[in-house]
Amino acid sequence: MTFERNKILGRGTFACVFYGTLNGIPVAVKRIQLHDLEESIQHREETAMRQLDHPNVLKLLHVQENEDFKFLVLELCEATIDDYIRRRYMADNMPSDCDALHQMASGVQYIHSKGFVHRNVKPENVLISSTSGVLKIADFGFCKPFRPSGSFSMTSSGPRGTRIYCAPEFLQLEGKSKEERDTIRCDVSIDVFSLGCMFFCYIKKGDHPFAKPGSPITYAIASNIVYGKKYLHLALMPDHYAYEMIDGMTQTVPQDRWTLERVIETLTPHLTKT
Ligand SMILES: Nc1ncnc2c1ncn2[C@@H]1O[C@H](COP(=O)(O)OP(=O)(O)OP(=O)(O)O)[C@@H](O)[C@H]1O
């Protein structure tokens, strides 16, 4: 594996992603600085990715490590959904909106079926594949296995990076002591909430369900999420195929949220026939 230090594809909190090659084939190389991470989470991303194989989940091709860094060699993508929403990326072969939502839901449903919750679903973490315009869920640095009951404890002190796609129960961890956090159990519906917010941003090209249409993305969104202050009706007609679904996915109470099975069933009749 080789990578080009001056060809940076993106940066995250703990990693830098470079253009590279593996056996002559173009790839993305995610370089993770090991010293920045607690030992228990240094290998989390690799462990999860090794178990995942789905067209809508980014594929791990190879792993290399030295004393300082872990290198995850990943299939190369062209852009992120964030680039697409902000109109920094245009392509002829993007799927229809409904096909795109179906792909994202299928990827997350598969991740759950393998016993993992992603916990960081957001537009920067959905990639657009180079060749076919297929969408791929990426960045498993925050994902966690869950019990057969479907629940997991939130040992984390709260969201990492942007908070505007986080479920209210996740945002409420901020400021809590470790003892308090240990008593809070979450379930996979935290990913459904994030996906619902992202669906809306995707369809409305940047608007957010918890912000007034056309208003800037601000800190107020996180507070609106916690208090269930939604503006869906100002941006989408109630008879739009995605209105009820996004409303159901972004319910404040986790038990009230739609399942991904229901989301996929709702989207299927609207898919582009090939
Ligand atoms: N396979 C890939 N192909 C092309 N670009 C990529 C690829 N993987 C990541 N990137 C780019 O690098 C950025 C950072 O990658 P990634 O989200 O995996 O890093 P991270 O440090 O885990 O981020 P975060 O701070 O969200 O946890 C992505 O948003 C994307 O722009």
TrEMBL record:
Gene3D superfamilies the record matches: Phosphorylase Kinase, domain 1, Transferase(Phosphotransferase) domain 1
InterPro entries for the chain: IRE1/2-like, Kinase-like_dom_sf, Prot_kinase_dom, Protein_kinase_ATP_BS
UniProt xrefs under CDD domains: PKc
Molecular function as annotated in GO: ATP binding; protein serine/threonine kinase activity; RNA endonuclease activity; unfolded protein binding
Keyword entries, A-Z: ATP-binding, Nucleotide-binding
Gene Ontology annotations for the cellular component aspect, listed alphabetically: endoplasmic reticulum
Keyword ATP-binding: yes
All residue ranges annotated as the Protein kinase domain in the record: 3-271
Binding locations of ATP: 30
Superkingdom to which the source organism belongs: Eukaryota
Coiled coil (residue ranges): none
GO annotation, biological process: intrinsic apoptotic signaling pathway in response to endoplasmic reticulum stress; IRE1-mediated unfolded protein response
Name this polypeptide is given: Protein kinase domain-containing protein
Source organism phylogeny: Eukaryota, Metazoa, Ecdysozoa, Arthropoda, Crustacea
